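Researcher: Please predict.
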Amino acid sequence: MKKLVIIFLLVLLIAGITIGLMKWFGLGPFEQPELAKEMEQERKIEAPDALFVDVEPVMINVVQEGAIVLTIQMELKIETAGNDNIIKIKRMLPIYKDAFMRDMHSFIPRMLNEIGRLDLPTVKRRLQITADRVAGEPGIVKSVLIQSIVDTPQ
Protein backbone atom coordinates (compact mmCIF):
# COMPACT_ATOMS: atom_id res chain seq x y z
CA MET A 1 0.00 0.00 0.00
CA LYS A 2 2.85 2.39 0.84
CA LYS A 3 4.47 1.71 -2.51
CA LEU A 4 1.24 2.50 -4.32
CA VAL A 5 0.88 5.86 -2.53
CA ILE A 6 4.53 6.75 -3.27
CA ILE A 7 4.10 5.87 -6.98
CA PHE A 8 0.87 7.91 -7.10
CA LEU A 9 2.62 10.91 -5.50
CA LEU A 10 5.56 10.65 -7.95
CA VAL A 11 3.21 10.55 -10.93
CA LEU A 12 1.30 13.53 -9.49
CA LEU A 13 4.58 15.40 -8.93
CA ILE A 14 5.82 14.73 -12.49
CA ALA A 15 2.44 15.77 -13.92
CA GLY A 16 2.48 18.97 -11.87
CA ILE A 17 6.01 19.81 -12.98
CA THR A 18 5.12 19.12 -16.61
CA ILE A 19 2.00 21.30 -16.48
CA GLY A 20 3.94 24.05 -14.71
CA LEU A 21 6.67 24.02 -17.35
CA MET A 22 4.14 23.99 -20.19
CA LYS A 23 2.40 27.00 -18.65
CA TRP A 24 5.72 28.79 -18.01
CA PHE A 25 6.92 28.37 -21.62
CA GLY A 26 3.44 28.79 -23.15
CA LEU A 27 3.34 25.36 -24.81
CA GLY A 28 0.44 23.08 -25.67
CA PRO A 29 -2.95 24.20 -24.35
CA PHE A 30 -1.32 27.20 -22.63
CA GLU A 31 -0.02 28.65 -25.91
CA GLN A 32 -0.98 32.26 -26.55
CA PRO A 33 -0.89 33.02 -30.28
CA GLU A 34 -1.03 36.80 -29.75
CA LEU A 35 2.00 36.70 -27.47
CA ALA A 36 3.88 34.54 -29.97
CA LYS A 37 3.20 37.05 -32.74
CA GLU A 38 4.38 39.92 -30.54
CA MET A 39 7.56 38.07 -29.61
CA GLU A 40 8.21 37.27 -33.26
CA GLN A 41 7.83 40.95 -34.20
CA GLU A 42 10.21 41.96 -31.40
CA ARG A 43 12.83 39.53 -32.66
CA LYS A 44 12.96 41.12 -36.07
CA ILE A 45 16.11 43.19 -36.19
CA GLU A 46 15.35 46.69 -37.32
CA ALA A 47 17.96 48.85 -38.95
CA PRO A 48 19.06 51.60 -36.59
CA ASP A 49 17.90 55.10 -37.41
CA ALA A 50 21.41 56.48 -37.33
CA LEU A 51 24.62 54.91 -38.57
CA PHE A 52 28.00 56.59 -38.18
CA VAL A 53 31.08 56.51 -40.36
CA ASP A 54 34.38 57.60 -38.82
CA VAL A 55 36.45 60.03 -40.85
CA GLU A 56 40.22 60.07 -40.39
CA PRO A 57 41.37 63.12 -38.41
CA VAL A 58 41.45 66.27 -40.52
CA MET A 59 44.56 68.44 -39.96
CA ILE A 60 44.34 72.11 -40.86
CA ASN A 61 47.37 74.41 -40.75
CA VAL A 62 46.53 78.10 -40.44
CA VAL A 63 49.18 80.13 -42.23
CA GLN A 64 49.65 83.85 -41.64
CA GLU A 65 52.48 85.91 -43.08
CA GLY A 66 54.24 82.85 -44.48
CA ALA A 67 54.37 80.90 -41.21
CA ILE A 68 52.14 78.31 -39.60
CA VAL A 69 50.56 79.98 -36.56
CA LEU A 70 48.00 77.34 -35.62
CA THR A 71 47.39 73.66 -36.27
CA ILE A 72 43.84 72.37 -35.86
CA GLN A 73 42.98 68.69 -35.71
CA MET A 74 39.32 67.69 -36.07
CA GLU A 75 37.87 64.25 -35.52
CA LEU A 76 34.62 63.86 -37.44
CA LYS A 77 31.84 61.34 -37.91
CA ILE A 78 29.32 61.30 -40.72
CA GLU A 79 25.79 60.32 -39.68
CA THR A 80 23.56 58.54 -42.19
CA ALA A 81 20.61 56.16 -42.29
CA GLY A 82 20.43 52.84 -44.10
CA ASN A 83 23.04 50.33 -45.13
CA ASP A 84 23.01 51.50 -48.76
CA ASN A 85 23.96 55.02 -47.72
CA ILE A 86 26.72 53.81 -45.41
CA ILE A 87 28.24 51.82 -48.28
CA LYS A 88 28.14 54.89 -50.55
CA ILE A 89 29.79 57.04 -47.89
CA LYS A 90 32.53 54.50 -47.12
CA ARG A 91 33.37 54.24 -50.82
CA MET A 92 33.64 58.03 -51.09
CA LEU A 93 35.40 58.59 -47.74
CA PRO A 94 38.65 59.92 -49.28
CA ILE A 95 36.62 62.39 -51.34
CA TYR A 96 34.76 63.57 -48.22
CA LYS A 97 38.01 64.03 -46.30
CA ASP A 98 39.59 65.94 -49.18
CA ALA A 99 36.54 68.20 -49.49
CA PHE A 100 36.51 68.88 -45.75
CA MET A 101 40.23 69.74 -45.76
CA ARG A 102 39.96 72.04 -48.79
CA ASP A 103 36.96 73.89 -47.42
CA MET A 104 38.33 74.25 -43.89
CA HIS A 105 41.73 75.46 -45.16
CA SER A 106 40.00 78.43 -46.75
CA PHE A 107 37.19 78.93 -44.21
CA ILE A 108 38.93 78.74 -40.82
CA PRO A 109 41.53 81.50 -41.45
CA ARG A 110 38.71 83.84 -42.57
CA MET A 111 36.71 82.97 -39.45
CA LEU A 112 39.69 83.58 -37.19
CA ASN A 113 40.35 86.95 -38.85
CA GLU A 114 36.72 88.05 -38.54
CA ILE A 115 35.71 86.86 -35.04
CA GLY A 116 39.03 85.78 -33.55
CA ARG A 117 37.86 82.30 -32.47
CA LEU A 118 36.38 79.06 -33.79
CA ASP A 119 32.58 79.07 -33.74
CA LEU A 120 31.64 75.36 -33.59
CA PRO A 121 28.01 75.67 -34.81
CA THR A 122 29.23 77.60 -37.86
CA VAL A 123 31.99 75.06 -38.54
CA LYS A 124 29.44 72.23 -38.20
CA ARG A 125 27.06 73.91 -40.67
CA ARG A 126 29.91 74.48 -43.10
CA LEU A 127 30.95 70.80 -42.87
CA GLN A 128 27.32 69.78 -43.47
CA ILE A 129 27.12 71.95 -46.59
CA THR A 130 30.36 70.43 -47.88
CA ALA A 131 29.15 66.87 -47.19
CA ASP A 132 25.85 67.52 -49.00
CA ARG A 133 27.74 68.92 -51.97
CA VAL A 134 29.98 65.83 -52.15
CA ALA A 135 27.05 63.41 -51.73
CA GLY A 136 25.27 64.94 -54.70
CA GLU A 137 21.80 63.91 -53.56
CA PRO A 138 19.83 64.84 -50.45
CA GLY A 139 19.30 62.39 -47.60
CA ILE A 140 22.57 60.50 -47.78
CA VAL A 141 24.33 62.54 -45.09
CA LYS A 142 22.08 63.39 -42.13
CA SER A 143 24.73 65.38 -40.30
CA VAL A 144 28.43 65.76 -39.68
CA LEU A 145 29.38 65.35 -36.03
CA ILE A 146 32.46 67.01 -34.61
CA GLN A 147 33.93 64.58 -32.08
CA SER A 148 36.79 66.80 -30.99
CA ILE A 149 38.79 69.82 -32.06
CA VAL A 150 42.32 70.34 -30.85
CA ASP A 151 44.07 73.58 -31.75
CA THR A 152 47.77 73.83 -31.13
CA PRO A 153 49.56 77.19 -31.49
CA GLN A 154 52.94 76.97 -33.18
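Model: The chain has two domains: 2-43, 51-153.
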